[in-house]
Amino acid sequence: MLNMSSFLESVLAEPLIELPRLEIIARGILWQCNNGEHQYLLTKDHNYRWSVPGGYINPQNTLENSWENGWLAIQNELRALIKRQLRVGVQEIVFLRDFTFWRGRDETKILGFHFGAEIEKGAIPKYDQSYLKAEWANIGRASGRQYYGNLFQDIKDLDFDLRTGRTARRKIRDMENY
User: What homologous superfamily does CATH list for 4-10+18-168?
Assistant: First the structure.
């Protein structure tokens, strides 16, 4: 699996003319725990597919940082995006997956990230017009919906990690790799 650092290094190794055609997408799988059960914030977009909060991040804000600060810059951009869209903050962010693809119509390289984060205790999201619908769902209610790509697999993986306490190990591994 290609990790974030090696992908960004390959992007920066290409001629600078490629940089304007890079887009970064970040999606946060936000959770809260109610009575010992994890619930995930699901959103339905204008294409009638289920997703999670997130969107585009300005590549210049992340690529201008040193490699040591690149992970922190992406986290800060994701925090700001969630704050704008939902008016809530998130606690510690856990990296789940990165993915890349080429958007054929304009040959743009897309770099995507899925993160997990618990919303601040007691916070109530206020949804903007970016979504047709938003709801909290446990893993059972989250299954059987039409999602983008491997998003539901990431939700299942995060749910497993939260139930088994693996997120602490994931956080340590993320800090070592990035």
Answer: Nucleoside Triphosphate Pyrophosphohydrolase (3.90.79.10)
